[in-house]
Write a sequence for this structure.
């Protein structure tokens, strides 16, 4: 009897200890788990998967660190999926203390994407460099032979300077490429700067070169000018090739994703963005003018946003549905904690939500759809054992209570 | 005047916003947008009010040496320390928020990443322990309603398991059988027989068709969420919305005045 009484009132410290074990042990092992993907998650996946490359999706960070284990895997998985589909991402948030988590997810996904396409990108850069060298080699040969005909010593000296400028330029591009994985925006700036530097120096030297021989032979000047124009064309082609390679293989801030930051006034902002995003976000989170971000050129309001995903641990998704969905017809997907998910089922059935990721399970289902095991898949076994422990405790408590009740009835 | 002016402003602003919603054409569209921008700016000022209130409350506690003054000190040190880190980082890098990048970590983001995030995470993680303890103490199948709630809750939990569906369902079957036997013994034969039969059938079915049980568990959970749960939730939602509309009309018309005074 004493044992049964004890079972109805187990010391909470024992329960805490059991919970620690239930959560920790599965984390120590890799447990393969099969997933049955639910309809709400499948619909969310389909909504994003069916978007055309180049479409813009808006991610709203409406959670903070308290819901990190549930919401962070969702934003990581959806960002990853979006980058794979070549979608462009606008990040913003209504909880300022949660926004850096969204930025972290974006940067990490971009870095992973860039890392996984590193080889292709390098190959493309190398190809462009070789192409440039091939063209400039012909040009240099032509110049040299022309120089031999006219004023060998003077022109060769300047031509060598020009050659060293080309090498210097290529070197700068190469050294910038070394750190492109993490600094895609800065990398592109460095390449642009190197190009501008090169053009400036090269133009100066050409002027000198032309000035030096002008008096001696106008025919040679004509050759130089024609060659310089040809050279410019190839340098422009090289820069275009680099740009194309970056577009294809790199995810860069300002071009593929932006972070508009936090502004106070949830409802006012959601409604106001239906008319013009810049009325509320004229600068991004780094204080850069939104108009200077290439990605935002053709994005003004919800008409330009294909899908909106709100990651929330509160009522933010309902606000998006009520003001952006109902008034402007914005397609919305919810990524919410397990506690919030039941509140959103009515919207799911009414079609006001295109899809729903609920809790860690929803996140892990999405991970299985994009075939990438992440935080959620790793966390699911621990959550499952914790659930089983809670079920066990409830059953033990109830059964002990039945036994105690019967004992009391017989005793009276 | 002190009471009338806010009422007039509220009435005009409320009516104006409703009108602009139904007439989005110019000049209403631009005016509505302007009002929304104002609302966002006002939202910024509420932050200042919050900081003012926080400093006053904890400053007073600290100055008077009231009970738990130490926690007030920690709060104020946290507030001003974060502010100082933000200013230092701003001076150093041009903006405190730039430091959200992966490798450029300055003081402000350091505070966020290594103090605030772990603290918030830890506080929320404690819930797992308290929920387990509370569920064990509160969830007892004493009555019909409690048993129904319990079974629904356990079925939802089982549906969200990634492993251990069979043992968890068997545990539920044992609970149902035990509850049934208990009811039979206390002379509630009908309810007892139904529960015991349900428990035994569930256990037998799970043992006979384990793969189907694993496949069906999420579907049962999805059905519970989509049908009974959603039906109840939709009713609550409609009630809340009607209440909100009624309250909004009361505020616009000046009937509800608690926001300007306590009376």
């Amino acid at each position: 009897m004493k044992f049964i009484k004890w079972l109805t009132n187990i010391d909470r410290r024992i329960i805490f200890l059991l919970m620690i074990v239930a959560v920790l042990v599965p984390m120590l092992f890799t447990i393969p788990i099969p997933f049955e993907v639910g309809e709400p998650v499948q619909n969310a996946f389909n909504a994003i998967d069916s978007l055309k490359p180049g479409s813009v999706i808006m991610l709203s960070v409406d959670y903070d660190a308290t819901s990190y284990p549930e919401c962070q895997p969702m934003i990581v998985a959806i960002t990853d999926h979006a980058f794979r589909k070549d979608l462009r991402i606008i990040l913003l948030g209504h909880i300022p203390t949660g926004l850096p988590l969204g930025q972290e997810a974006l940067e990490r996904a971009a870095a992973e994407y860039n890392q996984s396409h590193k080889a292709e990108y390098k190959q493309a850069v190398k190809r462009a460099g070789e192409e440039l060298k091939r063209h400039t080699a012909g040009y240099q040969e032509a110049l040299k032979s022309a120089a031999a005909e006219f004023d060998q010593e003077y022109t060769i000296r300047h031509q060598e300077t020009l050659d060293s400028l080309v090498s210097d330029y290529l070197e700068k591009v190469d050294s910038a490429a070394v750190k492109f994985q993490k600094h895609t925006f800065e990398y592109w700036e460095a390449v642009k700067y190197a190009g501008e530097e090169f053009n400036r120096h090269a133009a100066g030297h050409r002027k000198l070169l032309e000035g030096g021989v002008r008096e001696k032979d106008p025919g040679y000047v004509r050759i130089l000018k024609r060659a310089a124009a040809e050279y410019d064309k190839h340098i422009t082609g090289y820069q275009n090739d680099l740009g194309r390679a970056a577009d294809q293989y790199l995810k860069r801030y300002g071009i593929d994703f932006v972070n508009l930051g936090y502004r106070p006034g949830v409802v006012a902002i959601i409604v106001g963005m239906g008319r013009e995003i810049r009325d509320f976000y004229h600068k991004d989170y780094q204080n850069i003018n939104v108009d200077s971000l290439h990605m935002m050129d053709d994005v003004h309001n919800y008409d330009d946003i294909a899908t909106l995903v709100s990651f929330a641990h509160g009522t933010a998704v309902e606000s998006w549905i009520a003001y952006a969905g109902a008034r402007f017809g914005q397609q919305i997907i919810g990524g919410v904690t397990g506690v919030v998910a039941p509140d959103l089922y009515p919207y799911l059935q009414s079609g006001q939500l295109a899809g729903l990721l609920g809790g860690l399970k929803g996140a892990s289902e999405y991970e299985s759809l994009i075939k990438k095991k992440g935080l959620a898949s790793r966390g699911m076994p621990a959550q499952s054992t914790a659930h089983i422990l809670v079920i066990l405790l409830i059953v033990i408590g109830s059964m002990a209570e039945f036994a105690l009740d019967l004992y009391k009835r017989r005793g009276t | 005047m002190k009471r009338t002016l806010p009422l007039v402003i509220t009435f005009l602003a409320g009516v104006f916003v409703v009108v602009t919603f139904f007439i989005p054409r110019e000049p209403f569209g631009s005016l509505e947008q302007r009002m929304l921008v104002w609302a966002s700016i006002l939202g910024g000022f509420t932050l200042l009010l919050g900081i003012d209130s926080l400093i006053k409350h904890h400053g007073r506690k600290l100055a008077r040496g009231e009970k738990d003054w130490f926690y007030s000190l920690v709060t104020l040190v946290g507030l001003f320390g974060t502010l100082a880190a933000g200013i230092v980082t701003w001076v150093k890098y041009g903006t405190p928020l730039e430091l959200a990048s992966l490798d450029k970590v300055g003081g402000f983001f350091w505070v966020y990443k290594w103090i605030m995030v772990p603290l918030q995470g830890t506080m929320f993680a404690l819930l797992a322990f308290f929920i387990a303890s509370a569920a064990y103490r509160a969830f007892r199948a004493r009555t019909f309603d409690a048993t129904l709630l319990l079974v629904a809750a356990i079925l939802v939990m089982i549906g969200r398991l990634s492993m251990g569906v069979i043992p968890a369902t068997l545990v539920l079957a044992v609970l149902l059988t035990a509850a049934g036997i208990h009811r039979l013994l206390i002379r509630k034969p009908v309810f007892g027989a139904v529960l015991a039969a349900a428990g035994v059938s569930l256990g037998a079915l799970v043992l006979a068709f384990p793969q189907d049980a694993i496949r069906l568990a999420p579907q049962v959970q999805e059905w519970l969420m989509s049908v009974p749960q959603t039906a109840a939730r939709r009713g609550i939602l409609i009630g809340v919305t009607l209440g909100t509309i009624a309250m909004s009309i009361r505020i616009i018309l000046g009937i509800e005045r608690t926001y300007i005074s306590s009376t």
